[in-house]
């Protein structure tokens, strides 16, 4: 897949390719594909038109890792950071930060909390005014996630996440993210709500509906979101998504010049997906 790069972005791409502009460092980030069943749907937010990155795009909840996300004070249940390091191909500190950021950002951007009083339970309702006050404090960075969990006597449930993909923003972009994608099921009793902020619209959409909207020009999807929805559309229920074997390869689209035009090349490489029938190998690459 090749995407034309017009205007300022195309000129920046030429400068980066020519070595006149150095790429910025990609920041560690986490994104969570929040799913619910009957039918299988994903939670999507439309970023406001004023956002500096991906304005107007429909995205999954997520964001950059806060340095405090790697704090050992974060109460933890489920696979340990070292185990996540093997899955994510990252060191223990980075993996701890990525998993914590995934849970924190999901709560900040949807009101859904993947945490509970112990390793076997999960919070049933997060819609009260006190929860909203904590959510806003987390967004404002006046409250760390470790403090939030400690105050409420909760533990992060890392077992509620499944690693899904790894995308890195192209070198030509002025804002770059090294993003791990996770999937998670909406916990029983919890519900999402329109939390505002960086999004001007939220929606539960089946992967096929979102892809159809993108094909019709009604829904703007970035390549990582499009690819992820395409993969999840192969399943009919959350159980199938979580049972799928993942051999995660890093995907990073590259800018190339073709016949005088600069385009973003999203190549196809092996991602190692077992579909619902147990054998459909799909191919994948980098954002």
From TrEMBL:
Residues spanning the membrane: none
**Family matches, as PROSITE patterns:** NUDIX (PS51462)
This protein's UniProt keywords: Hydrolase, Magnesium, Manganese, Metal-binding
Name the SUPFAM superfamilies for this protein. Answer: Nudix
Would the keyword Transcription turn up in this protein's UniProt record? no
Q: Which domain of life is it from?
A: Bacteria
Q: Name one GO molecular function term.
A: metal ion binding
From the Swiss-Prot or TrEMBL record, give the protein name.
Nudix hydrolase domain-containing protein
């Amino acid at each position: 897949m090749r995407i034309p790069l017009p205007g300022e972005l195309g000129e920046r791409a030429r400068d980066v390719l020519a070595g006149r502009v150095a790429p910025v460092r990609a920041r560690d980030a986490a994104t969570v594909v929040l799913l619910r069943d009957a039918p299988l749907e994903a939670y999507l937010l439309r970023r406001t038109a004023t956002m500096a990155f991906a304005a107007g795009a429909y995205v999954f909840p997520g964001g950059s890792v806060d340095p405090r996300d790697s704090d050992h004070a974060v109460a933890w249940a489920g696979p340990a950071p070292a185990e996540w390091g093997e899955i994510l191909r990252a060191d223990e500190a980075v993996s701890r930060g990525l998993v914590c950021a995934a849970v924190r950002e999901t709560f900040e951007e949807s009101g859904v909390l993947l945490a509970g009083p112990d390793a076997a339970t999960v919070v049933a309702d997060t819609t009260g005014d006190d929860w909203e006050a904590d959510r806003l404090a987390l967004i404002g960075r006046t409250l760390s996630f470790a403090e939030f969990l400690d105050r409420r006597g909760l533990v992060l449930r890392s077992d509620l996440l499944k690693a899904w993909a790894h995308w890195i923003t192209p070198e030509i972009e002025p804002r770059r993210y090294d993003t791990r994608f996770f999937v998670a099921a909406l916990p029983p009793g919890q519900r999402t709500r329109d939390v505002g902020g960086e999004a001007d619209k939220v929606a539960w959409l089946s992967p096929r509906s979102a892809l159809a909207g993108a094909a019709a020009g009604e829904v703007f999807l970035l390549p990582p979101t499009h690819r992820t929805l395409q993969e999840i559309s192969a399943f009919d229920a959350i159980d199938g998504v979580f049972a799928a074997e993942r051999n995660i390869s890093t995907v990073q689209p590259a800018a190339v010049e073709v016949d005088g035009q600069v385009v973003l090349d999203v190549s196809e490489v092996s991602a190692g997906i077992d579909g619902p029938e147990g054998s459909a190998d799909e191919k994948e690459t980098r954002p």
